[in-house]
Amino acid sequence: MECRSYRALPGVHASPNIQGDPALYELENRAADPDGLIEAAMQQIAPWDGRVVLDLGAGTGFHVPRFHATAEHVFAVEPHDPSRFAIMQRAVQLGLTNLSVLKGSAEYIPLQNQSVDICHARFAYFFAPHCELGLHELARVMRPGGTAFIIDNHLSAGTFARWLQRAGSVKPEDAATTATFWADHGFATTTVVSEWRFQRREDFEAVVQLEFGATVGPELLAHHNGLCVEYHMQVYHRMYGADHE
Q1: 2, β-bridge pairs
Q2: What does the pLDDT look like over 48-93, one tens digit per residue?
Q3: Which are the contacts of 109, defined by CB distance < 8 A and separation ≥ 6?
Q4: Is 75 left (phi over 0), alpha (psi -120 to 50) or beta?
Q5: What is the rounded distance in angstroms from the CA atom of residue 95 to the CA atom of residue 45?
Q6: Residue 127 — left, alpha, or beta (φ > 0 → left; ψ -120 to 50 → alpha)?
Q7: Spatial distance between the Cα atoms of 104 and 14, rounded to a whole number of angstroms
């Protein structure tokens, strides 16, 4: 496949949080789902031990080491150059040898047909209902019997969802529209009841402002004490059969 520039890759969406402040987003990743409930749910559905894993929209590679620990091989696909270079740096620091870091996007995955057993995409590209082209490309690379996991926010339950609604990021009808979209595309849904858990209030406040802005963030924090936030997430998952497109 030909090499494409960042701007030429189809389906690329800017990510102001991780791309704007990767160090702060690293703190957010550490605080999110600290007990690993998402990975536990994934392992119950389709373990990645000894299998080929695609981390699609891998960002700076925060989740890559978890998969690399037991996977046969991990492909980390990320369109943003500085983020991809951060994955490479992380790989060198941790000695991750069964890893390929590739430039690509959800709509342009630089892998062969039916080459992936497990796909993981977390808060990356697949925001219903406008991601059909990425789903078509994902189906191309998934092996029969392989499973794709798409992790996103729960839009109607938990403190974080209420914050999204208060910030105007989510409309009341969005939860039903999203649920229908994933069901129509053959995905089941597993809800994970987790949390943000920070060690320091200043880190908590900085991350809230990163996600909700300098105006809404302080308003949310003014009514919330402590270092934790109830955070429900949705794990959309689909096993692909021999007849998938």
Answers
A1: none
A2: 999 999 999 999 999 999 999 999 999 999 999 999 999 999 999 9
A3: 54, 56, 77, 137, 138, 140, 141
A4: beta
A5: 28
A6: beta
A7: 14
Residue 35 in tokens? 């007990």
* Cα(154)–Cα(53) distance, integer angstroms: 24
Task: Name the CA dihedral angle for 162, 167, 172, 174, rounded to a multiple of 10 degrees.
Answer: -100
Share of the chain above pLDDT 70, in %: 95
Q: Return the DSSP state at 200.
A: -
Residue 162 tokens, joined = 């209420």
Whose CA is closest to 119, among 86, 146, 156, 87?
146
Neighbour count for residue 114 (Cβ, 10 Å) = 16
Q: What does the block give as tokens for 9? A: 């890759």
In angstroms, the CA 178 to CA 127 distance is: 8
Higher pLDDT, 9 or 143: 143
In one letter, which amino acid is 113?
N
Q: Name the β-bridge partners of 105.
A: 108
Q: Which tens digit of pLDDT belongs to each residue from 187-208?
A: 999 999 999 999 999 999 999 9
